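Much of what follows relies on a compact textual record of a protein's fold. A record is reproduced here so that you can trace the correspondence yourselves:

. . .
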Amino acid sequence: MLEDMRVLLALGGNIKIAAATEAIAELADRHELIVAQYSGPQSAHELELMLRNALPDRDVVSVLTQVVVAGGDGAVDCDLPSRPSPEPRAIAEIRSLRVLLGAGAVVICAAGGLPVTLDELGTMQRVDAEVDGDLTVALLARRLDVDLLLMTSDGDDDDVVAPKLEAVRRFTEATGRHAAVIALADAVRIARAQAVTLAA
């Protein structure tokens, strides 16, 4: 039976999907779950297959995620040799994600997503940029009204962990809800403890 909590689990790029499936399935068995992954569509497909096998009674849906950035953002317009990283402003598929979660599906989406801009008529256009995955996760968690944001960082160094901590800070300051940068092995325990806290 699902507990009354919506959880967003962000999988660090160095986490092996096969090793993560058991913990993810246990979270999904108890909670509404969104999984944000950093490793591209092939990894999303692999994760979807494994979760469908582990959770035969649940719908598992991968959603191609488009992230809206500001068209006038200097990070998009500049002509630098390296790809810029504009600030994520919105998630284009947010209504679809809410419908899927409301229907009980486990949702898999990209942490960084595909950057797009919107013109004055609401027409989307792809832009050449690389959206910050951690800030996108924080935005996604806010827009989906999650109760708990867990960002995994098994084995990551300080340069990788620091942006995750910033994303956690933004989420908690904006919502007053709980978030943490954790090892994947701790995800189920922390979610269980938070569910007890919310129920108290």
